[in-house]
Amino acid sequence: MAARRAATGGCTASSTSTTATSSTARAWSAASCPSAASSTGKTARTVYCSMAATFIIVLRHSILRDAYIGHGPRKLFSSNKISERARHELLLRSDDQERTLGSGQALVDTLFPYSPKDEANMDDMLTWMTADANSDYIDHRRDTSCPMLDRMAKEINNSPAVVAHRNSPAVLALQARFNAIVGVKFQWDTCLECLMIARCNNLPLPDGTTEELFHALINEVQTRTRMKLSYQNGAYAKLDMQHMWRDILKRVDAVILDPSSALKLSITMGHDSTLMPMMAVAMGPTWDGHWTTYAGMLVIEVYRDADMDRRHGDAYAVRLIYNGKPLQLPFCNDELCPWSTFNASLSWARATRQCKLPTKASTRLDTNVSTHQPSAAWFLLPVGALLAVVGTLATRQSPYRRETDPLLG
């Protein structure tokens, strides 16, 4: 199927800078060069920011357009004309479900508005990367390529902490209360989806479902999910999204190696089951476990110190933004995280994904690493952005060239 553009997942954005003071005296100034993707307004020092690339995991459209397209040192693209960008600068990725494909089309149409002229030049077409549902890590619910995930899920479900919570008087009472309302034994795995679809589309809830009960049910689903994704230092969440994190690290590697040929913007259209484990990994013990919103967006911005050799890893820093709010990663001293620290903390993602069933019971993935924060003052030039998107269904139809590649993230 021919078309001018495509949707991709996992993007790292590099259009804003954040400031943090490290224990070794390097001053990070993140909010002093705010981008449209960030909602912060604090300032710490004047720094020069210039955008070179962005990787983003996203659900919201206009935020990205305002942050990364236009004139200025913090923009990724000076024009929203698809014909004016180099073919290697943009990666679009999603799974093969129609709703994520439709959401991706809506997102790209917002960033690069469609023009009939785009169809006249085959070079202006974008390639939309998808993968076989049975091996696509974007949505593990259909991925049968990693049997270890099922093994770990069963282990977590039978762990003493989870069993104790599941059988606690408060949870059993809540379950019995809603069972009486719906008249059947409901499933916790689908409870939130049913409730939220009804609420967000102004559909009636089952008779007797009070506001207090509604929130109690949602909180219980979030608690169970948080326990699963946080179990044993986030072992399940790490294995689930290991491929995604490895792709992100490799894309930053490419920016450092040769920014002129590297991606500027990488977009991954995913689901709540994509963003939730990524948030669990990134935030670790500080993650609140709240369910991701519709059109939720995780952006990973990459910056470069203008005064340092661009080939040096210490010249780079990253910042994560979730739904417009910069995140304070637990292994970094501030919102703007040195690339060396970020890379070391996620180094486990570069290893081979352990999907084969082990001979011993332990499935823990320990990633305890020392995180050294470099020193000195920074003048930051954004160099990349990764974008991951949990999409909502788009109804507009537009032509796209679709390709499948099980190896491309």
Describe this structure in words.
This protein is an alpha/beta fold. The chain has a single domain, classed as Rossmann fold. Strands 3, 4, 5, 6, 7, 8, 9, 10, 11 and 12 form a 10-stranded mixed sheet that branches. It has a two-stranded antiparallel sheet with strand order 1-2. Strand 4, helix 2 and strand 5 form a beta-alpha-beta unit. The chain is globular and about 60 Å long.
Quick summary:
One of its GO terms (molecular function) is phosphatase activity. This protein has 409 residues and is α/β, with parallel strands linked by helices.
Return the string of H and E elements.
EEEHEHEHHHHHHEHEEEEHEE
Q: What gyration radius follows from the Cα positions, in whole Å? A: 22 Å
Low-confidence spans: 1-36, 39-54, 365-380, 389-409
Fraction of residues in H or I helices: 25-40%
Cα shape: globular
Number of helices: 10
